[in-house]
Amino acid sequence: MKTISIILEVHQPMRLRKYRFFDIGAAHNYYDDYQNKYALKRFGEKAYLKANKVLCSLLEQYRDKFNVAFSFSGTVLDQMQWYAPELLESFKKVVKNKNVEVLAEPYSSGLAAWLGGNFWEEQVKKQQKRVKETFDKNASVLMNTNLVYNDEIGQRAADMGFTGIITEGAKHILGWKSPRYIYNHPTESKLKIALRDREISEDILFNFDSKKYNLDTLISSLESGQSIGKKNSENDDKHVTIVIDYAVFGLYQREESGILEFLKALPAQISSRTSYKFSSISDLFAKTKSVAPLYIPDAISSLDEEKDLTPFIGNDLQRDAFETLQRVAKKMQEVSDSELVKDFVFLTGIDHLYYMSTKWFTATLASRYIRPYDSPYEAYINFMNVLADLEIRILNSINNMNPKKSKIMEEKKVVAAKPAAKKPAVKKVAAKKPAVKKAAAKKPAAKKVAAKKPAVKKAVAKKPAAKKVVAKKPVAKKVAAKKPAVKKAAAKKPAVKKVVAKKPAVKKAVAKKPAAKKPVAKKK
Protein backbone atom coordinates (compact mmCIF):
# COMPACT_ATOMS: atom_id res chain seq x y z
CA MET A 1 0.00 0.00 0.00
CA LYS A 2 1.24 3.49 -0.87
CA THR A 3 0.60 6.26 1.62
CA ILE A 4 1.28 9.96 1.85
CA SER A 5 1.38 12.25 4.89
CA ILE A 6 1.53 16.04 5.02
CA ILE A 7 3.11 17.72 8.06
CA LEU A 8 2.69 21.48 8.55
CA GLU A 9 5.19 23.34 10.74
CA VAL A 10 4.00 26.36 12.76
CA HIS A 11 6.65 28.27 14.69
CA GLN A 12 7.46 31.82 15.77
CA PRO A 13 10.62 32.66 17.75
CA MET A 14 10.73 35.04 20.71
CA ARG A 15 12.48 37.98 19.06
CA LEU A 16 14.79 39.97 21.33
CA ARG A 17 14.83 43.74 21.76
CA LYS A 18 18.06 45.71 21.38
CA TYR A 19 19.70 44.79 24.64
CA ARG A 20 22.78 46.93 25.24
CA PHE A 21 25.77 46.40 27.51
CA PHE A 22 24.52 48.94 30.07
CA ASP A 23 21.25 47.01 30.40
CA ILE A 24 23.11 44.04 31.90
CA GLY A 25 22.17 43.73 35.56
CA ALA A 26 19.70 46.63 35.28
CA ALA A 27 16.89 45.47 32.97
CA HIS A 28 15.46 41.97 32.60
CA ASN A 29 12.89 42.54 29.84
CA TYR A 30 14.53 40.78 26.87
CA TYR A 31 11.76 40.53 24.28
CA ASP A 32 10.57 42.89 21.58
CA ASP A 33 6.82 42.70 22.10
CA TYR A 34 6.10 45.03 19.21
CA GLN A 35 8.08 42.95 16.68
CA ASN A 36 6.66 39.68 18.00
CA LYS A 37 3.11 40.97 17.76
CA TYR A 38 3.70 42.49 14.32
CA ALA A 39 5.29 39.32 12.91
CA LEU A 40 2.53 37.07 14.24
CA LYS A 41 -0.13 39.39 12.84
CA ARG A 42 1.61 39.41 9.46
CA PHE A 43 1.92 35.63 9.35
CA GLY A 44 -1.69 35.24 10.45
CA GLU A 45 -3.18 37.62 7.91
CA LYS A 46 -0.99 36.57 4.99
CA ALA A 47 -1.02 32.80 5.51
CA TYR A 48 -2.38 31.12 8.63
CA LEU A 49 -5.98 32.37 8.68
CA LYS A 50 -6.56 31.82 4.96
CA ALA A 51 -4.96 28.38 4.97
CA ASN A 52 -7.01 27.38 8.03
CA LYS A 53 -10.23 28.16 6.16
CA VAL A 54 -9.12 26.02 3.23
CA LEU A 55 -8.17 23.12 5.51
CA CYS A 56 -11.47 23.24 7.39
CA SER A 57 -13.32 23.01 4.09
CA LEU A 58 -11.15 20.12 2.84
CA LEU A 59 -11.45 18.13 6.07
CA GLU A 60 -15.20 18.51 6.03
CA GLN A 61 -15.44 17.57 2.37
CA TYR A 62 -13.10 14.55 2.23
CA ARG A 63 -13.41 13.34 5.82
CA ASP A 64 -11.39 10.12 6.29
CA LYS A 65 -9.82 10.42 2.84
CA PHE A 66 -7.70 13.38 3.86
CA ASN A 67 -5.31 13.76 6.80
CA VAL A 68 -2.82 16.38 7.92
CA ALA A 69 -0.55 16.81 10.93
CA PHE A 70 0.60 19.99 12.66
CA SER A 71 3.80 20.59 14.57
CA PHE A 72 3.41 23.60 16.91
CA SER A 73 6.29 24.99 18.94
CA GLY A 74 5.45 26.09 22.47
CA THR A 75 6.61 29.65 21.72
CA VAL A 76 4.10 30.13 18.90
CA LEU A 77 1.26 28.87 21.09
CA ASP A 78 2.31 31.32 23.80
CA GLN A 79 2.44 34.22 21.35
CA MET A 80 -0.95 33.40 19.87
CA GLN A 81 -2.42 33.37 23.35
CA TRP A 82 -0.79 36.73 24.22
CA TYR A 83 -1.02 38.67 20.97
CA ALA A 84 -3.60 36.99 18.69
CA PRO A 85 -6.24 34.94 20.53
CA GLU A 86 -8.45 34.98 17.42
CA LEU A 87 -5.69 33.21 15.51
CA LEU A 88 -5.42 30.57 18.21
CA GLU A 89 -9.17 29.99 18.03
CA SER A 90 -8.84 29.51 14.27
CA PHE A 91 -6.23 26.78 14.80
CA LYS A 92 -8.37 25.12 17.48
CA LYS A 93 -11.20 24.91 14.98
CA VAL A 94 -8.94 23.08 12.51
CA VAL A 95 -7.21 20.78 14.99
CA LYS A 96 -10.40 19.57 16.65
CA ASN A 97 -11.11 17.53 13.50
CA LYS A 98 -10.37 13.85 14.14
CA ASN A 99 -8.24 13.64 10.97
CA VAL A 100 -5.81 16.25 12.24
CA GLU A 101 -2.89 15.12 14.38
CA VAL A 102 -0.48 17.19 16.46
CA LEU A 103 3.18 16.17 16.80
CA ALA A 104 5.57 16.58 19.70
CA GLU A 105 8.69 18.75 19.50
CA PRO A 106 10.93 20.78 21.87
CA TYR A 107 9.05 23.71 23.38
CA SER A 108 11.33 26.46 22.05
CA SER A 109 12.26 24.66 18.83
CA GLY A 110 15.96 24.66 19.69
CA LEU A 111 19.06 22.49 20.13
CA ALA A 112 18.11 21.45 23.67
CA ALA A 113 19.43 17.93 23.00
CA TRP A 114 23.00 19.29 23.21
CA LEU A 115 22.58 21.37 26.38
CA GLY A 116 23.26 18.45 28.70
CA GLY A 117 21.10 17.07 31.46
CA ASN A 118 17.43 16.42 30.71
CA PHE A 119 16.65 19.78 29.11
CA TRP A 120 15.60 18.20 25.82
CA GLU A 121 13.26 15.69 27.48
CA GLU A 122 11.80 18.40 29.72
CA GLN A 123 11.10 20.69 26.76
CA VAL A 124 9.39 17.90 24.79
CA LYS A 125 7.20 17.03 27.77
CA LYS A 126 6.39 20.69 28.31
CA GLN A 127 5.28 21.04 24.69
CA GLN A 128 3.17 17.86 24.94
CA LYS A 129 1.46 19.29 28.01
CA ARG A 130 0.86 22.59 26.22
CA VAL A 131 -0.68 20.77 23.24
CA LYS A 132 -2.97 18.80 25.54
CA GLU A 133 -4.11 21.95 27.34
CA THR A 134 -4.67 23.89 24.11
CA PHE A 135 -6.13 21.30 21.73
CA ASP A 136 -7.04 18.39 24.02
CA LYS A 137 -4.93 16.00 21.91
CA ASN A 138 -2.00 13.75 22.73
CA ALA A 139 1.22 14.26 20.78
CA SER A 140 2.48 10.69 20.36
CA VAL A 141 4.85 11.12 17.39
CA LEU A 142 8.03 13.18 17.64
CA MET A 143 9.53 15.60 15.12
CA ASN A 144 12.57 17.40 16.46
CA THR A 145 13.50 20.99 15.65
CA ASN A 146 14.16 21.43 11.91
CA LEU A 147 14.18 17.60 11.72
CA VAL A 148 17.47 17.53 13.66
CA TYR A 149 18.29 13.91 14.44
CA ASN A 150 20.99 11.34 15.11
CA ASP A 151 21.11 7.90 16.72
CA GLU A 152 21.53 9.39 20.20
CA ILE A 153 18.36 11.47 19.87
CA GLY A 154 16.56 8.38 18.61
CA GLN A 155 17.71 6.47 21.70
CA ARG A 156 16.46 9.22 23.99
CA ALA A 157 13.13 9.38 22.12
CA ALA A 158 12.69 5.64 22.56
CA ASP A 159 13.47 5.97 26.28
CA MET A 160 10.66 8.53 26.52
CA GLY A 161 8.22 6.02 25.02
CA PHE A 162 7.95 7.31 21.44
CA THR A 163 7.48 4.69 18.75
CA GLY A 164 7.89 6.98 15.75
CA ILE A 165 10.01 9.99 14.74
CA ILE A 166 10.28 12.18 11.62
CA THR A 167 13.64 13.30 10.24
CA GLU A 168 15.32 14.40 7.01
CA GLY A 169 15.94 12.10 4.05
CA ALA A 170 19.51 13.33 3.60
CA LYS A 171 21.37 11.87 0.64
CA HIS A 172 24.66 11.37 2.47
CA ILE A 173 22.85 9.25 5.07
CA LEU A 174 20.68 7.22 2.72
CA GLY A 175 23.21 6.47 -0.01
CA TRP A 176 21.41 4.10 -2.37
CA LYS A 177 18.39 3.78 -0.04
CA SER A 178 15.07 5.50 -0.72
CA PRO A 179 13.42 8.05 1.60
CA ARG A 180 10.06 6.49 0.69
CA TYR A 181 10.25 3.64 3.17
CA ILE A 182 9.90 3.28 6.92
CA TYR A 183 13.11 2.42 8.78
CA ASN A 184 13.92 1.73 12.40
CA HIS A 185 16.55 2.75 14.94
CA PRO A 186 19.65 0.49 14.82
CA THR A 187 19.37 -0.59 18.47
CA GLU A 188 15.79 0.40 19.39
CA SER A 189 13.87 -1.55 16.77
CA LYS A 190 10.51 -0.38 18.16
CA LEU A 191 11.32 3.21 17.19
CA LYS A 192 10.35 3.66 13.54
CA ILE A 193 11.74 6.45 11.35
CA ALA A 194 9.91 8.27 8.55
CA LEU A 195 11.97 10.47 6.23
CA ARG A 196 11.00 13.76 4.65
CA ASP A 197 10.91 13.64 0.86
CA ARG A 198 13.37 16.47 0.29
CA GLU A 199 12.66 17.05 -3.41
CA ILE A 200 8.86 17.36 -3.18
CA SER A 201 8.93 19.36 0.06
CA GLU A 202 11.48 21.90 -1.17
CA ASP A 203 9.84 22.23 -4.58
CA ILE A 204 6.62 23.35 -2.89
CA LEU A 205 8.53 25.69 -0.57
CA PHE A 206 10.89 27.34 -3.03
CA ASN A 207 10.01 26.58 -6.63
CA PHE A 208 6.25 27.00 -6.77
CA ASP A 209 6.24 30.70 -7.63
CA SER A 210 8.70 30.19 -10.46
CA LYS A 211 6.02 28.17 -12.32
CA LYS A 212 8.39 25.21 -12.37
CA TYR A 213 6.27 23.24 -9.97
CA ASN A 214 2.55 22.36 -9.90
CA LEU A 215 0.22 19.44 -9.24
CA ASP A 216 1.24 17.72 -12.47
CA THR A 217 4.86 17.78 -11.41
CA LEU A 218 3.99 16.47 -7.96
CA ILE A 219 1.88 13.61 -9.33
CA SER A 220 4.51 12.73 -11.88
CA SER A 221 7.12 12.56 -9.15
CA LEU A 222 4.93 10.37 -6.96
CA GLU A 223 4.10 7.87 -9.68
CA SER A 224 7.42 7.63 -11.46
CA GLY A 225 9.67 7.70 -8.43
CA GLN A 226 11.91 10.30 -10.05
CA SER A 227 12.80 11.87 -6.71
CA ILE A 228 14.69 8.73 -5.67
CA GLY A 229 16.38 8.11 -9.00
CA LYS A 230 14.67 4.86 -9.95
CA LYS A 231 11.28 3.26 -10.38
CA ASN A 232 10.20 0.92 -7.60
CA SER A 233 7.93 -2.06 -7.67
CA GLU A 234 4.20 -1.33 -7.49
CA ASN A 235 3.85 -3.85 -4.65
CA ASP A 236 6.26 -2.02 -2.33
CA ASP A 237 4.87 -0.38 0.81
CA LYS A 238 6.07 3.06 -0.11
CA HIS A 239 5.38 6.17 1.93
CA VAL A 240 5.96 9.83 1.08
CA THR A 241 6.33 12.32 3.91
CA ILE A 242 5.94 15.98 2.94
CA VAL A 243 7.09 18.46 5.58
CA ILE A 244 6.59 22.16 4.85
CA ASP A 245 6.36 25.41 6.76
CA TYR A 246 2.69 26.38 7.06
CA ALA A 247 3.57 29.99 6.17
CA VAL A 248 4.23 28.86 2.59
CA PHE A 249 0.50 29.16 1.91
CA GLY A 250 0.38 32.91 1.35
CA LEU A 251 3.58 34.36 2.83
CA TYR A 252 6.63 32.49 1.53
CA GLN A 253 4.63 31.86 -1.63
CA ARG A 254 2.27 34.73 -2.40
CA GLU A 255 -1.41 34.06 -2.79
CA GLU A 256 -1.19 35.39 -6.35
CA SER A 257 1.06 32.46 -7.24
CA GLY A 258 -1.89 30.07 -6.83
CA ILE A 259 -0.51 28.30 -3.78
CA LEU A 260 -3.91 28.21 -2.03
CA GLU A 261 -5.52 26.79 -5.16
CA PHE A 262 -2.81 24.15 -5.13
CA LEU A 263 -3.80 23.22 -1.56
CA LYS A 264 -7.50 23.11 -2.42
CA ALA A 265 -6.94 20.73 -5.34
CA LEU A 266 -4.37 18.51 -3.62
CA PRO A 267 -6.66 15.86 -2.01
CA ALA A 268 -8.75 15.32 -5.14
CA GLN A 269 -5.71 15.13 -7.44
CA ILE A 270 -3.86 12.68 -5.20
CA SER A 271 -6.91 10.42 -4.82
CA SER A 272 -7.93 10.40 -8.48
CA ARG A 273 -4.60 10.44 -10.29
CA THR A 274 -2.30 8.35 -8.07
CA SER A 275 -2.33 5.10 -6.13
CA TYR A 276 -1.43 6.92 -2.88
CA LYS A 277 -3.77 7.26 0.07
CA PHE A 278 -3.54 9.87 2.81
CA SER A 279 -2.49 8.45 6.17
CA SER A 280 -2.07 9.93 9.63
CA ILE A 281 1.43 9.70 11.07
CA SER A 282 0.39 7.60 14.07
CA ASP A 283 -1.44 5.09 11.84
CA LEU A 284 1.59 4.96 9.57
CA PHE A 285 3.91 3.84 12.37
CA ALA A 286 1.32 1.47 13.81
CA LYS A 287 0.51 -0.35 10.56
CA THR A 288 3.69 -0.15 8.46
CA LYS A 289 6.67 -2.43 8.96
CA SER A 290 10.18 -1.06 8.78
CA VAL A 291 12.37 -2.35 5.96
CA ALA A 292 15.79 -2.00 7.65
CA PRO A 293 17.68 -0.22 10.43
CA LEU A 294 18.97 3.25 9.54
CA TYR A 295 22.31 4.36 11.01
CA ILE A 296 22.67 8.11 11.53
CA PRO A 297 25.72 8.69 13.78
CA ASP A 298 26.15 12.39 12.92
CA ALA A 299 23.43 14.99 13.39
CA ILE A 300 21.38 15.95 10.33
CA SER A 301 18.79 18.68 9.73
CA SER A 302 16.46 19.88 7.00
CA LEU A 303 18.36 23.11 6.25
CA ASP A 304 21.05 24.00 3.74
CA GLU A 305 22.58 21.81 1.09
CA GLU A 306 24.71 19.84 3.56
CA LYS A 307 21.71 18.98 5.76
CA ASP A 308 23.72 19.32 8.96
CA LEU A 309 24.05 21.72 11.90
CA THR A 310 26.31 24.28 10.20
CA PRO A 311 23.47 26.82 9.75
CA PHE A 312 23.30 26.99 13.57
CA ILE A 313 26.81 26.28 14.91
CA GLY A 314 28.91 26.66 11.77
CA ASN A 315 31.02 29.73 12.62
CA ASP A 316 32.95 31.05 15.62
CA LEU A 317 30.20 33.44 16.69
CA GLN A 318 27.62 30.67 16.77
CA ARG A 319 29.89 28.20 18.52
CA ASP A 320 30.86 30.72 21.21
CA ALA A 321 27.22 31.65 21.79
CA PHE A 322 26.18 28.02 22.02
CA GLU A 323 29.02 27.15 24.40
CA THR A 324 27.89 30.03 26.62
CA LEU A 325 24.36 28.68 26.46
CA GLN A 326 25.66 25.26 27.53
CA ARG A 327 27.49 26.84 30.48
CA VAL A 328 24.34 28.66 31.55
CA ALA A 329 22.38 25.41 31.19
CA LYS A 330 24.60 23.73 33.79
CA LYS A 331 23.81 26.47 36.29
CA MET A 332 20.12 26.29 35.42
CA GLN A 333 20.00 22.77 36.85
CA GLU A 334 20.05 24.34 40.33
CA VAL A 335 17.31 26.88 39.59
CA SER A 336 13.58 26.47 40.22
CA ASP A 337 12.44 30.06 39.69
CA SER A 338 9.63 29.93 37.12
CA GLU A 339 10.55 33.26 35.47
CA LEU A 340 14.16 32.20 35.01
CA VAL A 341 13.10 28.85 33.58
CA LYS A 342 10.73 30.56 31.14
CA ASP A 343 13.40 33.00 29.93
CA PHE A 344 15.98 30.24 29.57
CA VAL A 345 13.62 28.11 27.48
CA PHE A 346 12.85 31.02 25.15
CA LEU A 347 16.57 31.76 24.73
CA THR A 348 17.33 28.18 23.65
CA GLY A 349 15.39 28.72 20.42
CA ILE A 350 17.39 27.79 17.33
CA ASP A 351 16.54 31.07 15.58
CA HIS A 352 18.86 33.09 17.85
CA LEU A 353 21.80 31.04 16.56
CA TYR A 354 20.58 31.10 12.97
CA TYR A 355 20.61 34.91 12.95
CA MET A 356 24.41 34.70 13.46
CA SER A 357 24.95 32.52 10.40
CA THR A 358 27.38 33.82 7.78
CA LYS A 359 26.56 31.16 5.20
CA TRP A 360 25.31 32.40 1.87
CA PHE A 361 21.88 30.97 1.05
CA THR A 362 19.98 31.47 -2.15
CA ALA A 363 17.64 34.45 -2.13
CA THR A 364 14.60 32.15 -2.13
CA LEU A 365 15.78 30.15 0.87
CA ALA A 366 16.78 33.21 2.83
CA SER A 367 13.30 34.68 2.40
CA ARG A 368 11.96 32.01 4.77
CA TYR A 369 13.48 33.87 7.69
CA ILE A 370 12.89 37.39 8.93
CA ARG A 371 16.24 38.61 10.23
CA PRO A 372 15.81 41.32 12.89
CA TYR A 373 19.52 42.27 12.79
CA ASP A 374 21.66 44.10 10.27
CA SER A 375 24.54 41.66 10.60
CA PRO A 376 25.46 38.33 12.23
CA TYR A 377 27.83 40.18 14.57
CA GLU A 378 25.02 42.43 15.83
CA ALA A 379 22.91 39.33 16.49
CA TYR A 380 25.81 37.79 18.43
CA ILE A 381 26.43 40.86 20.62
CA ASN A 382 22.76 41.28 21.44
CA PHE A 383 22.29 37.63 22.34
CA MET A 384 25.45 37.51 24.48
CA ASN A 385 24.36 40.60 26.43
CA VAL A 386 21.06 38.92 27.24
CA LEU A 387 22.82 35.73 28.32
CA ALA A 388 25.14 37.76 30.57
CA ASP A 389 22.19 39.27 32.40
CA LEU A 390 20.44 35.90 32.65
CA GLU A 391 23.57 34.38 34.17
CA ILE A 392 23.69 37.11 36.84
CA ARG A 393 20.06 36.41 37.73
CA ILE A 394 20.75 32.68 37.93
CA LEU A 395 23.67 33.18 40.33
CA ASN A 396 21.58 35.48 42.52
CA SER A 397 18.78 32.91 42.58
CA ILE A 398 21.19 30.13 43.52
CA ASN A 399 22.65 32.22 46.36
CA ASN A 400 19.20 33.05 47.73
CA MET A 401 17.33 29.80 47.28
CA ASN A 402 19.67 26.85 46.88
CA PRO A 403 20.66 25.21 50.19
CA LYS A 404 23.76 23.73 48.61
CA LYS A 405 24.94 27.20 47.71
CA SER A 406 24.30 28.46 51.23
CA LYS A 407 26.59 25.73 52.57
CA ILE A 408 29.25 26.85 50.15
CA MET A 409 28.82 30.41 51.38
CA GLU A 410 29.22 29.24 54.98
CA GLU A 411 32.41 27.44 54.06
CA LYS A 412 33.67 30.60 52.42
CA LYS A 413 32.98 32.52 55.61
CA VAL A 414 34.99 29.96 57.59
CA VAL A 415 37.84 30.25 55.12
CA ALA A 416 37.66 34.03 55.38
CA ALA A 417 37.84 33.77 59.20
CA LYS A 418 40.94 31.57 59.20
CA PRO A 419 43.46 34.40 58.70
CA ALA A 420 42.03 36.12 61.77
CA ALA A 421 42.59 32.88 63.68
CA LYS A 422 46.26 32.94 62.70
CA LYS A 423 46.80 36.50 63.94
CA PRO A 424 46.69 35.71 67.69
CA ALA A 425 50.33 34.72 67.42
CA VAL A 426 51.14 38.23 66.27
CA LYS A 427 49.02 39.65 69.05
CA LYS A 428 50.80 37.44 71.58
CA VAL A 429 54.14 38.76 70.42
CA ALA A 430 52.81 42.24 70.88
CA ALA A 431 51.57 41.15 74.29
CA LYS A 432 55.02 39.87 75.24
CA LYS A 433 56.53 43.31 74.91
CA PRO A 434 54.71 45.21 77.58
CA ALA A 435 58.09 45.98 79.10
CA VAL A 436 59.01 47.91 76.00
CA LYS A 437 55.76 49.79 76.14
CA LYS A 438 56.20 50.43 79.87
CA ALA A 439 59.71 51.59 79.30
CA ALA A 440 58.45 53.95 76.70
CA ALA A 441 55.94 55.10 79.25
CA LYS A 442 58.69 55.71 81.84
CA LYS A 443 60.85 57.65 79.44
CA PRO A 444 58.72 60.75 79.48
CA ALA A 445 60.41 61.56 82.79
CA ALA A 446 63.69 61.68 80.93
CA LYS A 447 62.06 63.86 78.31
CA LYS A 448 60.81 66.20 81.03
CA VAL A 449 64.30 66.49 82.44
CA ALA A 450 65.57 67.32 79.03
CA ALA A 451 62.82 69.88 78.64
CA LYS A 452 63.76 71.57 81.95
CA LYS A 453 67.43 71.70 81.09
CA PRO A 454 67.82 73.39 77.73
CA ALA A 455 71.48 73.77 78.44
CA VAL A 456 71.81 70.04 78.53
CA LYS A 457 69.98 69.77 75.25
CA LYS A 458 72.35 72.26 73.69
CA ALA A 459 75.25 70.33 75.02
CA VAL A 460 73.88 67.18 73.52
CA ALA A 461 73.20 68.89 70.23
CA LYS A 462 76.75 70.26 70.13
CA LYS A 463 78.58 67.10 71.02
CA PRO A 464 81.77 68.05 69.21
CA ALA A 465 82.26 70.95 71.60
CA ALA A 466 81.50 68.69 74.50
CA LYS A 467 84.26 66.41 73.32
CA LYS A 468 86.74 69.25 73.52
CA VAL A 469 85.70 70.02 77.06
CA VAL A 470 86.03 66.39 77.95
CA ALA A 471 89.54 66.47 76.63
CA LYS A 472 90.48 69.18 79.19
CA LYS A 473 88.71 67.62 82.17
CA PRO A 474 89.50 64.03 82.96
CA VAL A 475 86.65 63.99 85.43
CA ALA A 476 84.29 64.72 82.61
CA LYS A 477 85.97 62.00 80.60
CA LYS A 478 85.12 59.52 83.27
CA VAL A 479 81.54 60.53 83.06
CA ALA A 480 81.73 60.31 79.29
CA ALA A 481 83.36 56.94 79.66
CA LYS A 482 80.35 55.74 81.50
CA LYS A 483 78.04 56.94 78.73
CA PRO A 484 79.25 54.46 76.09
CA ALA A 485 78.15 51.78 78.48
CA VAL A 486 74.82 53.47 78.44
CA LYS A 487 74.79 53.21 74.63
CA LYS A 488 75.64 49.55 74.80
CA ALA A 489 72.86 49.15 77.27
CA ALA A 490 70.60 50.87 74.77
CA ALA A 491 71.45 48.09 72.34
CA LYS A 492 70.32 45.68 74.98
CA LYS A 493 66.98 47.22 75.76
CA PRO A 494 66.41 45.52 79.13
CA ALA A 495 69.77 46.86 80.41
CA VAL A 496 68.89 50.33 79.17
CA LYS A 497 65.89 50.41 81.36
CA LYS A 498 67.95 49.50 84.39
CA VAL A 499 70.68 52.02 83.63
CA VAL A 500 68.17 54.77 83.06
CA ALA A 501 66.50 53.88 86.28
CA LYS A 502 69.79 53.85 88.27
CA LYS A 503 71.44 57.05 86.98
CA PRO A 504 69.63 59.86 88.62
CA ALA A 505 73.00 60.67 90.21
CA VAL A 506 74.46 61.33 86.82
CA LYS A 507 71.75 63.83 86.11
CA LYS A 508 72.43 65.51 89.50
CA ALA A 509 76.14 65.57 88.83
CA VAL A 510 75.46 67.38 85.62
CA ALA A 511 73.27 69.75 87.48
CA LYS A 512 76.02 70.49 90.17
CA LYS A 513 78.72 71.35 87.70
CA PRO A 514 77.90 74.79 86.44
CA ALA A 515 81.61 75.41 86.07
CA ALA A 516 81.63 72.82 83.32
CA LYS A 517 78.91 74.71 81.52
CA LYS A 518 80.73 78.07 81.76
CA PRO A 519 83.85 77.00 79.87
CA VAL A 520 81.62 75.76 77.13
CA ALA A 521 80.03 79.13 76.93
CA LYS A 522 83.44 80.96 76.96
CA LYS A 523 84.84 78.83 74.19
CA LYS A 524 81.97 79.76 72.02
Detailed description of the structure:
- The chain is built from 26 helices and eleven strands.
- The protein is of the alpha/beta class and 524 residues long.
- The strands form three sheets. Strands 1, 2, 3, 8 and 11 form a five-stranded parallel sheet that branches.
- Strand 6 (183-184) and strand 7 form a beta hairpin.
- Helix 2 crosses helix 3 (85-95) and helix 12 packs parallel to helix 16.
**Mass-distribution shape:** globular
Ends distance: 135 Å
Average pLDDT? 80
Task: Tell me the quaternary state.
Answer: single chain
Q: Biggest sheet, open or closed, and with what strands and sense?
A: 5 strands, parallel
CATH class of the domain at 2-12 and 37-307: Alpha Beta
Tell me how many strands there are: 11
Just name the CATH architecture of the domain at 2-12 and 37-307: Alpha-Beta Barrel
Number of helices: 26
Q: What name does CATH use for the topology of the domain at 2-12 and 37-307?
A: 7-stranded beta/alpha barrel
**Unreliable segments (pLDDT under 50, ≥5 consecutive)?**
226-235, 361-368, 419-524
* Helical coverage, percent range: 55-70%
- In terms of DSSP E residues, the strand content is 5-15%
What is the structural class?
Answer: alpha/beta
Alpha-carbon Rg, integer:
44 Å
